[in-house]
Structure formats: C-alpha cells, structure tokens
Amino acid sequence: MLTLRHHFYRSCFALSTVALLGASGALSRQADPPNALHTQLKAMSGTGLMLAGCQERLQTLDGMLRKAGYSPMRSWLVDGSTMIARWYHPERHTTVLAFAGWQATGNAFSTDEFAGMMRWNELTTSP
Fold first, then answer.
1. What is the DSSP letter of 73?
2. Mean pLDDT throughout 89-108?
3. CA–CA separation, 45 vs 23, rounded Å?
4. Please, are residues 61 and 98 in contact by the beta-carbon 8 Å criterion?
5. Bridge partners, residue 46, by sequence
6. What is the pLDDT of residue 114?
7. Is Signal one of the keywords (predicted)?
C-alpha cells in the first residue's frame, strides 16, 4: 500500500509541477501591444485642411495600409465635395474608411477601422 500511495503522490507532484511551469510561461508573456494601426488612423484626422493636405494624407494612408496587407485603395467622390476611400484586409476581415473634404480649403479628414466588409451601398443614404 505504501508504494501505491508513494506513486500517487509522485504523480500528483509531477502534474502540479508541469501545470505550474506552464502557467508561469503564460503569465510571463507580454500582453498584446495596443492596436498601433488604430492609433495611427486617429492621428491622421484633422480639420481646416487644404486639398493638398487631404491628398497627401490619403497617399500616406494608402502606403501604410498596403504594407499592412490591405487591398489597394478604392475611392468615390460624393457630390464633388467629399472623397471616401476604402481598404479591405481579407485575412483580418476589416475595412478602413477615410473621409476627406475635396474643396480648395477648409477640409476635414477622418478615418477609422471597421469589422467586416463595408460595401459602397452601406455608405450611401436611401431616400
């Protein structure tokens, strides 16, 4: 009986040790870094911009998103005054939208990331 009990305690000790070593490895892992893309997108927002400033931000954003694996930019000029640009990441299933004023002066630029595929018809209003 003593040998069976001894074997039981040794097995429990071995399992506990393995579990604790595994848990300590999980606890020592760094947390995921903050969403750097989201931070960069928000930093690009602005108001009172010249048309050239909006165009420059769109080009910068396009290059940044292509490097991150997004599809090439698709754009749509609404009423001649607002440019909407869209990028999609097929593996992460996320869409990035940018809205830029398209007048000579006094433009706003904003961008954000959305889960899933945003289609053009979702961006237009229905009468």
1. P
2. 95
3. 42
4. yes
5. 109
6. 92
7. yes
What are the tokens at 122?
A: 């979702």
For the whole model, what pTM was predicted?
Answer: 0.69
Average pLDDT of the segment spanning 43-58: 96
pLDDT at 62 exceeding the cut of 80? yes
CA-nearest of 97, 106, 57 to 76 is 97
**β-bridge partners, 112:** 97
Q: How many CB atoms lie within 10 A of CB 21?
A: 10
Closest Cα partner for 83 from 54, 106, 112? Answer: 54
CA distance 76 to 50: 19
- Asked if residue 31 lies in contact with residue 83, where contact means CB atoms within 8 angstroms, the answer is no
